[in-house]
Design brief:
single chain; mainly beta; nine-stranded mixed sheet; 5 helices
Amino acid sequence: STRRGFWSLETFPPFSTFSSFCCSMAPADEMEDTPSVCDAAVHRAALRPVALAGRLQCTSSSTDQEAASLFESYKQTPELLSATSAAELPQPGNEAATSSKRKACDDEGDVPMDVDARRPFGPSAAEMFVAEACRRRDRCPKGQLVLLCGGHVAACALGDVGLALYNLRQPGSARILACGAAVLSLCPVQGGGSAESMLLASNAAGGLLLWRISFTDDGFPAGELVSRTQPEEGFSGEVWTVSANLVEGAGVVAVAHRSIVDDTPDQQSSTLLSEVLVLTFSESSAKLVARLRGSRPPQAASCSAHSSGSGSNPNGGVEVEVEVVLVSESSGFAPSGIAWAVEEDTGLATIVRISETECQAKSWALPHGDLLAAWASGPNLAVLIGKGRQGSATALQISVGDSELQLSHCEEIPGLAACASAREKLTCLLPSQEGRLFALVEVNAVSVFRHPEGQALAATASLQLPSTGLGYEVLGAAATDHVVAALTPTELVWSTVDLTAHPKQRPAPKKKASQEKLPMGIDREALLRMLDMRGED
C-alpha cells in the first residue's frame, strides 16, 4: 500500500539486530534540470504528490534476532563515568559574574545589600545571559558545546561573551576568541587531527567564521582565524551551523541554515521557511555556492567533492562537483523556485549536487519512525530511527552511490528509543561519532548509555551537574567515546568514560529444593509407605 506516494513498510520484516545490509531507495522527487520561476504552481502548500520507483531491500539472520531477545535492560553503573571535573565560565561583565556574592552599601547608610536588589525592574544581566543561552540551545542544541583535538579541547558558544576554549587535560581559565558579534553556534570540521582541529562558528550578524584550533607551548588552546564570510555574501541576521567537512580539492565545505519568510506570490499569510546555505572556505576567502529551501531546518549534513569529469572550468581549473547530503524531519530541500518533497511521520534525506553551472537536488524517504538523531560519521551520515515506546532504535548509515543514496549499514539498538521517549524534557540525543555511547540530554540532566553490543545488560550513568542559584540548566552537551561534557550557566563540567565498565550481572534465581529430599533427613519413600498404610485403616 502507498501513502502520499511513499511505500508502506508494514509488509516488510523488521530490521534485525546487528545485521549489515546494502539497500537503495528510489528518488522521492524527480527535480527538473532547469529551475523554474518561483510562482504559485511551486508553492510548498500545493506540492504535487511524489512517487518512489523502488523499495527498501534488506536481509536479516535469525542469530541477530536471537541476540536482540537476550537484551534485558540498562543498569546504573557509576563506574562508567569518572568523577566530574569543572571549570568556571566567564560571565557577561564582572558585575554579572559576581552579583550573587558581591555586596554594596545603601546610599542612606552602611547596610549591605545585594547588587541585584538595587535594580528597579527587569531581570539581572546573569538571568538575561541564561535566558539567551536557552534560546540558542533550543534553536541549535548540538551547536553550543563541541569537543576538538581528540576530545582534549572544549569550545563553548557564549553569546556576547564570545567563543571560549578550554583545555580539558589542564583545567584552568578559558581562552576567549572574539567573533565580531554574539556567538550563536559551533560545529567541528570533520577530518581534523588530534593535535589540531578546525572549527566553524556563526554569529548574530549572519557571519560564519572558520577557526584553526591548536595548543600553544604553554598548553593553552589557541585559535587562528582562517577565513570568514563577508557582508556582500548576501545574507544577514542569525545563522546557525549544521556541518563542515574538510574535502580534498574543495577546501572546507560548510552547511548552515537560517529562517526566512516565504516570498511565494499569493501567500495568505507569512510563513517561515528554512534556507540552507552551502559555502566553501579556503585559506583566505569564503564563497557561497548554493542556497536551498525546505520546510524545516536540517538536523545533519555531510559533504564531499570530486572532479565532475567535464574538463576544465572557464577559469582554467579543474571543475569540482560538491555533493551535500541533508537529513531533516518531514522535509526535503530544493533550490529556490523548485518544489521540495514533504512527507509526514518520517525523515527525508536529500542529496544536492552543485557544480559551476547548476544545482540539482533529489530526496529519499527514510523508514517510518521518529528521527531521534542524525550526525556525520566520516564521509557518510548516520541516523537513529525509533518507534516511540516500542523500545528499540534502528541505526542506519547513509552513503552516496553512483546515482542514488544507499543505506550501507543497519543495526538495532535495543531499549534506546524507550529510554528517549520516557524523557519529557529531552532536548537532543547525542551519539558519539563512533556510536559506542549515547547521551540523552535534558534541560537539567545528562544521562549516558553504553551501546549494548550484544550484551544482556548495558551500563548507564548520569553526569553530575552543579546546583546554582540560577538553576542547573543544561545549555549544551557533547560526547565522544572517551569524554562526556555539559555546559551549564556557571560551569563547564565533564567526565571521562570507561568503556570497560560493565554492570554487575543479576544473581541467578535460587533453585527450588529437590522434591527427593525432605527436611530433617526424613526418608521420602518411608513416609509415603506410612501414609499408604494409614489410608487402609
